Amino acid sequence: MAVVDGDQGPEPRAVLHLADGTPVALRPIQPDDAERLRRLFYRLSPETVYWRFFSPIQVPREAVLERFARVDHRRREAIVAVVADEVVGVARYDQDVGTDEADTAILVEDAWQGRGLAKVLLRRLAEVAGERGIRTFTALILGENVRARHLYSSVFAGVDATLVGSEWHLRIPLEGSGAGCP
Ligand SMILES: CC(C)(COP(=O)(O)OP(=O)(O)OC[C@H]1O[C@@H](n2cnc3c(N)ncnc32)[C@H](O)[C@@H]1OP(=O)(O)O)[C@@H](O)C(=O)NCCC(=O)NCCS
Q: Is residue 44 included in any domain, yes or no?
């Protein structure tokens, strides 16, 4: 999968095509994505919700959707993958105050998993984070979440993973990670 088109307007976006030709737009999240995030939530399997949020959430809280959709594009950023005007994947970072580190999280809708979208989203997120002076990503992953564990290691070099209780704590140096490569 390659990014084949892009522009640098007020809302930078890139369009890539999946192996079956489906166009997917990548762009920073915007406030009116709150409703798209709500619709995305109700299309997720219970397993995907649990892997992402570490608990079996039934109904997303309004304030949480708003907070997820409203970022400052500096200290907090989220890149969304959009198909037919619906969000099908989100990668986000939240910078720790006063540091050059940012915590990350990622989610791809079940129907769109296994097509390389998470890798593309994480690479894009790392690119913009690096431009803003963030040097290290961190991530918390449930111990049994082999898929997410492999994902981070396939995108980034030098992932340091420590198992603390039932969770993996990842530290990922961005410099020299090669994450910017397509
Ligand atoms: C983890 C997740 C984001 C992966 O999304 P995806 O779009 O399916 O991932 P990709 O297709 O880009 O695959 C990327 C890598 O994931 C790993 N992966 C994908 N499917 C896998 C599977 N069934 N088993 C093991 N590893 C797998 C591989 O390392 C793959 O790289 P490769 O193709 O070079 O082998 C997705 O499964 C998801 O949303 N899970 C629930 C939320 C979550 O666990 N988030 C992480 C904690 S915040």
A: yes
Whole-angstrom distance, CA of residue 89 vs CA of residue 43: 12
Q: Is the CB of 107 under 6 A from ligand 1?
A: yes
Inside any domain, residue 89: yes
Render pLDDT for 65-120 as a digit per residue (tens, 0 to 9): 999 999 999 999 999 999 999 999 999 999 999 999 999 999 999 999 999 999 99
Q: Is 111 among the domain residues?
A: yes
Which residues are within 8 A (CB) of 132 and not within 5 positions of it... i.e. 6 or more apart? 74, 77
Q: What pTM value is reported for the model? A: 0.92
> Which tokens go with 121?
């989203």
Between 34-43 and 62-69, two packed helices, what is the crossing angle to 10 degrees?
A: 120
CATH of the domain at 123: 3.40.630.30
Q: Which two tokens stand for residue 92?
A: 């986000």
Residue nearest to atom 17 of ligand 1 (CA): 151
Give the tens place of pLDDT for each residue, 29-62. 999 999 999 999 999 999 999 999 999 999 999 9
pLDDT at position 182, please? 44
How many angstroms does the Cα of residue 49 sit away from the middle of ligand 1?
Answer: 14
